[in-house]
Amino acid sequence: VDKQVVDVLIIGGGSIGATIMIALQQLGYHTLLVEAKPWGSQINPDFDARTLALSPSSQRILDMLGIWDTLQEHATGIEFIHVSEQHQFGAARLHAKTHDPLGYVVEMQHLNAALQQHVPHESIIAPATLQSLCLETATAIIQTLSGACSVHATLIIAADGTESMIREYIQLPATVKNYNQHALVANIGLEEAHQHKAYERFTPYGPLALLPISQNRMSLIWANASERTHCLMTLSDTAFLQALHEAFGYRLGRFTKVGKRFSYPLKQVLMPKQAKWPVVFLGNSAHTLHPIAGQGFNLALRDAASMAQCINQWGLNPNMLQQYARLRHLDQQVIMRFTDGLVQLFGRQQIGAGWIRAIGLIAFDNTPFLKKILARFAQGFGGITPDLVCQIALSTKEGKL
Ligand SMILES: Cc1cc2nc3c(=O)[nH]c(=O)nc-3n(C[C@H](O)[C@H](O)[C@H](O)COP(=O)(O)OP(=O)(O)OC[C@H]3O[C@@H](n4cnc5c(N)ncnc54)[C@H](O)[C@@H]3O)c2cc1C
Question: Is the backbone peptide bond immediately before 318 cis, with ω within 30 degrees of 0?
Fold first, then answer.
């Protein structure tokens, strides 16, 4: 069996595994990434139709890591957010200050392409999967197409997604909440320009978001009970656009086209304890959120920025992981509760609940203080902010990385 020794082994080369890889390589750590799918398949437009709403703090992290330069041309700024509820009066609005967007929208394929450009190919084993893991010796057996290899690492980062196999291996518990919903994702063509406006609309069946992307297209994320999503997936394009108009109205003019529709099951997965030396969980494996508030990747990116900062400051040891957990606790708790709270609040069907929410939206719209606090956390500036968000480079020895 082929044997390798590295500082950090990352299992899972999704957006979060690739980001932490880039940060650690920039810090000079010998890092190896193992990904189950063929490397490069993630940049196929048919691979993943998701778009991501990136918060300003995420933009800063990607910028500090040198990734934003490649991604920028594919990013659409959000200048206005409109939140409303179907069949209710009242709405909340957030406006951007001049030249300071509230966030950016990027398609997953472009994010993955930008990340992959920055990951050195010799540090990747793909397609390959983790076969076994020995915590005592910090050794992983990796199955590749040409056979098995053994990797000894000082630290192992589990970025292997919601259904993390490593979580099972090392028997750390996770609480799982099944929303019994699926998110339908598709691109929608518009008759009129979107003017960089994003919309979140709560319907009796579930929330829908329309995010502006290039060429007068909006990216739709529409959560519904699983059976209803299934029906929406099978409608003709015309019938589908009609159903979307019934839920959303005509605020954006007439919808002219719908692209290929994809659906994703929605559940919340949370690991109360996200590390057991020498393994630490990052991204969807540590916390998977409902996409209602578009916070999953943003939160995980701040985790990754903090982890790189902790490793830089304390090195690869159990104390570093304790410092990391301490730094990330508040931000994770606030974002997770906020996201789940929105799902519960707008999921209530009792008589009068709609009125209370409508009054809440109006009150929120007229309370700059509340807007400010919420915007702070939603934009990624709440809790203890990672250095990269404050535009402080990871390594001060050689200046900006
Ligand atoms: C519909 C939808 C919309 C969303 N919108 C937003 C948004 O607007 N903003 C936002 O911030 N977030 C959003 N999110 C959340 C965001 O997509 C996730 O937070 C993010 O993709 C998590 O990335 P990850 O790298 O942790 O996990 P994943 O992308 O799941 O990557 C895990 C990787 O690990 C690999 N893997 C798994 N097991 C193994 C193994 N045993 N060996 C080797 N490799 C393995 C997999 O092949 C995969 O590539 C949305 C999610 C959904 C579903």
Answer: no
- β-pair partners for 83: 92, 200
Cα separation, 170 vs 277, whole angstroms: 10
Q: What is the pLDDT of residues 283-329, one digit of tens each?
A: 999 999 999 888 999 999 999 999 999 999 999 999 999 999 999 99
Helices (H), 249-317: 296-314
Q: Which three-class secondary structure state does DSSP give residue 339?
A: helix
**φ, ψ of residue 303 in degrees (nearest 5):** -60, -45
For residue 12 and ligand 1, the question of a CB distance below 6 A is answered with yes
Ligand 1 proximity of 14 Cβ (cutoff 6 Å): yes
Whether pTM exceeds 0.90: yes
> pLDDT digits over 3-27, tens only?
999 999 999 999 999 999 999 999 9
Residue 342: exposure state from Cβ atoms within 10 A (0-12, 13-18, ≥19): middle
Residue 178: which residues within 8 A CB-CB, separation 6 or more? Answer: 267
Q: For 238-253, what is each residue's pLDDT tens digit?
A: 999 999 999 999 989 9
CA of 355 to the centre of ligand 1 (A): 36
